[in-house]
Amino acid sequence: MTPLQRYIAEEIATDHVDGLLSRREALRRLALIGMGTAAATALIAACGEQKTAAPPTSESPTPSPTPSPSAGGPPPGSAGALPTSPITWAGPAGQLQGAWAAAPQPRGGVLVIHENKGLNDWVRSVAGRFAGIGYSALAIDLLSGQGGTAAFSDPAAATAALSKIAPEEFVANLKSGVDELARRVPDHKLAAVGFCMGGGLVWQLLAAGAPQLAAAVPFYGPAPDNPDFSGSRGAAVLAFYGALDQRVTSTEPVVRAALEKAGMVHDLVTEPDANHAFFNDTGDRYNAAAAADAWRRVQDWFGQHLG
């Protein structure tokens, strides 16, 4: 399996262990990415054992004087969100699709990289939230080469299709997205923000060299193997982790060391009592307190490094 397939497989297995998926559904989704029943059963058992044995994260969580995870109210930034419109542009190997949210008087531009579910309504809403605070946003659809996310009626099939895309194709398309963003927001600084798989792809983009980026914000994204970020020294990195998300948070020391070696400005935040995907208000692991704190920090970071 590729590292991405392994990551997605572990996420599916962990969702079952945490009670978010039935065993039958977990096995179905694992089969879609190419795992046989025996291998899938072994992975689920291993994830269960890891959860039982996992020690608390070694990171000291950053205090967050925000409401409790169950607090009501709209998701952070949603009140002022602007609408998105579908766009296409010429990518390195064919037409790419995305959702565009234009700020009336942009302070900068943001490339939004989706989770392993593809470009869905939640990702579009995040692009709209960035536009609402003054940063024109382009949410790229990394399933463009397969007809786009909308071509998949089964979200699990969309995830499986993403798992089979080569890392080089992802990076090439993301760089094309940055170029398209620069064309649409000329003479402004740019950032990339990604969630889950998309957070991991922010790290991949930085490792591949992204000199156009002034800022990067990976949310709970797994670290690449032996990353070298020297080609992206101009990007100030704000990364988020959940204290309960040992699977991804355990990779934080890898990126911390690489960022320090490259001499990059960075702040790596571990949100207390938060799990993987804590920012996604449509998911079962949404944590309102952590999401509100992260949104505040992102705005402050962009104010410092984008304008």
Automatic annotation (TrEMBL):
SUPFAM superfamilies for the chain: alpha/beta-Hydrolases
Disordered, as annotated region: 50-87
Ranges of Low complexity composition bias in the record: 50-61
Keywords assigned: Hydrolase
Domain Dienelactone hydrolase: 106-305
GO molecular function: hydrolase activity
Signal peptide annotation: none
Biased composition (Pro residues): 62-77
InterPro entries the record matches: AB_hydrolase_fold, Dienelactn_hydro, Dienelactone_hydrolase-like
Name of this protein: Dienelactone hydrolase
Species of provenance: Mycolicibacterium brisbanense
